[in-house]
Amino acid sequence: MNQSLRSNFQSFHANQAFDALEIAVLIPCYNEAEAIAKVVKDFQAALPTATIYVYDNNSTDKTVIRAQAAGAIVRREPRQGKGHVVRRMFADVEADVYLMVDGDDTYDATAAPEMVRLMTTECLDLVNGTRSAVSTTAYRPGHKLGNMMLSGLVQKIFGTGATDMLSGYRVFSNRFVKSFPIMSRGFEIETELTVHALELQMPLDEVASSFRDRPEGSESKLNSIRDGVRILRTILRLARHERPLWFFSLVAGLLAIAALGLAAPVITEYFATGLVPRLPTAVLSASLMIIACLSGAVGMVLDLVTRARQEAKRMQYLSIPGVATKARPQPTSQKPKKLMVGQ
């Protein structure tokens, strides 16, 4: 009985929170005519109060026509690449909660209410929809292995976070979106989203969602090798920008090991004969050690600069109201009772 009452109470307040929130569903698209209408209708059914936006990225098929016919607000971004589209969506759309999902109909719309509910009840800034394949062809082993390796690398460098870093199904708070300086142009935007949350130590969580095959006639735009290299390059770039002490210390360590390896036979021969016959090797070894020391010093200086920049980003992030402020039911205003003299 108590459990039932508690469940009804939570459901009542969840509905109040949903009604108080302005939810935007953002769908970046490029040639998704076979899937986009179903995606729009599925999310209209899952989140009836949400506004559905489809951002077309130079599609050459009937994506725009079918999205409009399904009832979505369609806008266009001429610069090619998912990063450009996400930058435009985040800049243009104003909402309390943003749900971003790929337009290929591979993600389960029925998980959306739980993702939004989790964000509002737990006061989160990011909820990641982790992929759980319903068939062996939906999530290919190569893609799964690459995702695990890249996600693991990000966790090692930036801290524990999303286990499915490359998922295209996420829910963001307003202060996440409006504090996010997007720099990526393509598919590597997923990495930048995750690192932004980890860097500012935002509260985040995950919700499992089924992941299915694309509809027949729809083709994937993902190139495993090309996009994998781009993502790895983005991780290294972000490590250099956000973890300069770690990055330049690693470079310094590698250079120092190389310098010592080259210097070892030179030093051994000098102590044995008193001569330095390998002068070029000695000069190269000394040069590498000097560069290693400079690299370490650069890392320490940049670390101080990065900390100051992170503090500024954190203050900007905190200046934006969290989702809990809008989701919390407002109490009814009551006039204070007048006290009579002598009471």
TrEMBL record:
KW Ion transport (keyword) present: no
TM annotation in the entry: 245-267, 279-305
Domain Glycosyltransferase 2-like per the UniProt entry, residue ranges: 25-173
Keyword Transmembrane helix annotated: yes
GO molecular function, one term: transferase activity
Record-linked PANTHER family: RFBJ PROTEIN (PTHR48090:SF7), UNDECAPRENYL-PHOSPHATE 4-DEOXY-4-FORMAMIDO-L-ARABINOSE TRANSFERASE-RELATED (PTHR48090)
Official protein name in the record: Glycosyltransferase involved in cell wall bisynthesis
Natural source organism: Shimia gijangensis
